[in-house]
Amino acid sequence: MLVYNYLENNSLAQSLFGNSHSSIQLDWKTRVKICIGVASGLKYLHEEVRPVIVHRDIKASNILLDKDLSPKISDFGLAKLFPGNMTHISTRVAGTLGYLAPEYAIRGQLTKKADVYSFGVLLLEIVSGRCHTDPRLPLQDQFLLERAWALYESGDLKSLVDSTLKGVFDTEEAQRLLKIGLLCTQDTPKIRPSMSTIVKMLKGECAIGDKIMRPGLITDVMDLKIRTVEPVQFSASPPKSPSDSNSQVSMLAVAGSTVVEESP
Question: Where is the Protein kinase domain (predicted)?
């Protein structure tokens, strides 16, 4: 049995993506605090405990908020322990589409950098107030990471910041956080920073650098076959039978489903 402190303010997802009647309004300072808090939690799991713990399912619905809106990482049901000097393992894919690192989604190669990728997507969500995938938007805008990259290339990254903030945010800090999100989602795992470096970057104690390359995008793995474990309710066409469980990653990315890789 797991016992948690009572966390009055439910999940971060509910505050970010819930309906407009949500009683919790996340101002800019609170969002920055949440980003640093989650990053510090992952730093602890990756660098301060033994064996190392890789969470594998970092996402907004797994971040709970206490009475002070401080974040707590929850749901360790998919977590993997890395004993000794082990730096990576090959395993069945588990996690949530849209947050999965490409090398993990395609090859099942798990490292701490898979959590870093997921955190990068989460960081973009917190700053933008958008879910990683929104099928209601025009096709070119549906995937948050792809939209962020396009805006970065055009020099208009600031326009991704959540409009509900009504312009009340630190522009320089917001652009820094969005760049960190892109850096965390780089296609090559070795280029992604460690969580301790990310914490320093978030606090403005460490330079990000200007060399940010194209991130690992969900459309790069569109042909990946998966089967759904927990389709979310707003999925347009959830599987109706075992024979229907195979689908393209694009459809399930829209659903934001938790998935495992199909056995050969």
Answer: 1-217
Distance (Å, whole) CA 145 – CA 216: 9
- DSSP one-letter code for 35: H
Whether the CB-CB separation of 133 and 253 falls below 8 Å is answered with yes
User: How many other C-beta atoms lie within 10 A of the C-beta of residue 154?
Assistant: 9
Question: Which ranges in 45-192 belong to alpha helices (H)?
Answer: 102-107, 112-128, 144-154, 171-184
Calpha distance 138→176 (Å, rounded): 27
Task: Give me the domains of the chain, ranges plus CATH numbers.
Answer: 12-16+25-81+88-94+106-216 (1.10.510.10)
| Tens-place pLDDT, residues 3-36 | 778 888 999 999 999 765 566 889 999 999 999 9
The answer for residues whose C-beta is within 8 angstroms of residue 219's C-beta and 6 or more apart is 143, 146, 250
Q: Which residues are catalytic?
A: 57
Rounded CA separation 229/245 (Å): 9
Helix (H, G, I), strand (E, B) or coil at 71: strand
Owner of token pair 């099942």: 108
Q: What is the DSSP letter of 45?
A: I
Task: Output the furthest CA–CA distance in the chain (Å, rounded).
Answer: 52
C-beta separation of 51 from 81 below 8 A: yes
